[in-house]
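Record 1 of the preview.
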Amino acid sequence: MFDVHCHMLPAMDDGARHVEMALAMARMAVDDGITHLACTPHIYPGLFENDAQGIAKAVDTFAQLLQEQDIPLQLAHGADIQVVPELLPRLRTGVFPTINGSRYFLFEPPHHVPLMNFSRFVSDVLSAGLVPVITHPERLTWLGEHYEEFLGAACKGAWIQLTAGSLTGRFGSAPRYWAEKMLDDGVVHLLATDAHNTRSRPPLLAEGEAAAARVLGREEARLLVYNRPGAIWKNEDPVQVPLPPALSDGFRGKNKKRPKKTGLLNRLLRRRG
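->
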């Protein structure tokens, strides 16, 4: 399997804290069936000031360590990029990395604040020949009020990436609901682990494939973890991209029942997503 979103590089962000944890994550990923993994630390101004050169150097160092430890995991580099000033020029000049040097890059929307001019941003990067892979929209606390914006982005050509653990309930009922709804609506391109450690955020992808298979069937679920992320890795056109629903139906998709939330629990879940 291909995992194109993982925070495994040690001491680069809020992922693996040290080399020992990074190695444990790598072993766990291999045991899960992951053969190719993109190391994608955050780029977040004022908090994680990473760039393509520093990330590539860290990946080379870690890859050498994996070889010494006999861990058969093929690495690439990328980044989980927040909206920052001059994002598009920095991608064009290589200051910010795409995934494995391809035209695809991870784009992380803010977790708790709706992104202004989201549709225009998607259009601008697509016009520049780049493909934004929108990371874990199912976990955003503001998704419910802006759901159609994400489906519209998928219609334009952006890719949607769900976290595998969202489909298993690792992040709670609301992210699981939205993840399953996006699968139902036919706009999910791939799954990734978004792993940060070995316990609460482990590098496990097979569980997400199995959960997706219960919604979509085994053939489509396999595309989510092999074919489409593999196309990103090789900078190829996607294989059998799901067709988003027509704009005219309001992106309602199937009438999947949303979990009920009341009182204090409702407020807490809205805060945490």
